[in-house]
Amino acid sequence: SWTVTVESGVLVKDLDDALRQHNPPLALPSNVVLDSVRYGGILALGCHGGATHTRTLPDLVSEVTIVDADGNLNTFSESKNPEEFVAATVNLGLFGIIYTYTLRVEPMFNLLMTDRYPLMSEYFSSPEQGGPKLKAMVLGNDQTEIFYWPFNRSGLKATNDRLWLKQWSRTSDP
């Protein structure tokens, strides 16, 4: 399998540019839309990444190196001690300063992105109606993100509100 080790201050755009230069070009199986954020901030929180089968970005981490209060470098890996590794990967900065992350990558792939703006009531009017629709939507795409801002349409009624659904599916199209 392919891995890349990055310092925590690396921008998403910079890693993406570097991975594209590899032969073959590489990519993270899941990432964030913003390219101006840094991996230390993304990974230490235990969230981000909308991929259905890889879960969050911290799930791609195989090793993390942290500088502790005494200036020592401590490396945690899932192969050495899985319990310590999980705590170190998503540590919110409590173990020290995160120096590097090693992430699993794969050969680059193409995604088709679609944006939709359905009424919120299509998915959240009742569990019986919305639950199966949400499940089918998430499982039918490689990545899904749902955005919602209350009272985003005139009338100040939840029934008028719309969701913003971003969906990505792998494709062989250029």
TrEMBL record:
Listed Pfam families: FAD_binding_4 (PF01565)
UniProt cross-references to PROSITE patterns, sorted A to Z: FAD_PCMH
InterPro entries according to UniProt: FAD-bd_PCMH (IPR016166), FAD-bd_PCMH-like_sf (IPR036318), FAD-bd_PCMH_sub2 (IPR016169), FAD_lactone_oxidase-like (IPR010031), Oxid_FAD_bind_N (IPR006094)
Source organism superkingdom: Eukaryota
FAD-binding PCMH-type domain residues: 1-108
Protein name, as recorded: FAD-binding PCMH-type domain-containing protein
Lineage of source species: Eukaryota, Fungi, Fungi incertae sedis, Mucoromycota, Mortierellomycotina
